[in-house]
Design brief:
With about 130 residues, this protein is mainly alpha-helical. The chain has one domain (about 5-110). Helices cover about 40% and strands about 5% of the residues. A two-stranded antiparallel ribbon has the order 1-2. Helix 4 (about 85-90) runs antiparallel to helix 5 (about 95-110). The longest helix is centred in the last third of the chain and has 15 residues, at about 95-110. The radius of gyration is 21 Å and the shape is extended. The termini are far apart. The structure holds zinc ion. The site of zinc ion has 7 residues, from loops.
Length: about 130
């Protein structure tokens, strides 16, 4: 999430709370549409602006289909893509919501570059040859 992402969200939401549609302005909080306890990340595609009280009322529940459809419609054509696990949840079979989200979150983790591999030095420093005494 960057400041630009938040600005784009504010414009797309018309300065209104995603949940109650009342003006929210500078008091907006960032709500994870898929809650963090389900693996929801800070990816802008998983964040909406909401009143603190609306954010708390939603709590740690997964969004329903109507909510996801509303988000998709709101973000269509914008530079904020829908977070893929939200689409997986939208298309999950009845009773399979939690497992669909878990699988999609795991798939994203597998795609992410491994920080260990990408930061490893290309060549290990060679030990210097011991100095030979006379
Ligand atoms: Zn609200």
């Amino acid at each position: 999430m960057t400041r630009d992402d938040a600005t784009v969200m504010d414009i797309l939401q018309g300065g209104r709370c995603f949940y109650c549609d009342a003006p929210v302005g500078a008091k907006a909080t960032f709500d994870h549409v898929i809650p963090q306890c389900y693996g929801g990340t800070d990816d802008p595609g998983n964040i909406v602006l909401a009143h603190r009280r609306c954010n708390q009322r939603k709590a740690d529940r997964l969004p329903d289909s109507d909510t996801i459809d509303r988000l998709i419609a709101m973000r269509r054509g914008s530079r904020i893509a829908i977070w893929p696990p939200l689409l997986a949840l939208r298309h999950a079979a009845p009773g399979q919501a939690e497992i669909a989200v878990a699988r999609a979150v795991a798939a994203l983790r597998d795609l992410a570059p491994s920080p260990v591999a990408s930061s490893a030095p290309t060549a290990a420093p060679q030990p210097s040859a011991p100095q030979r005494g006379r």
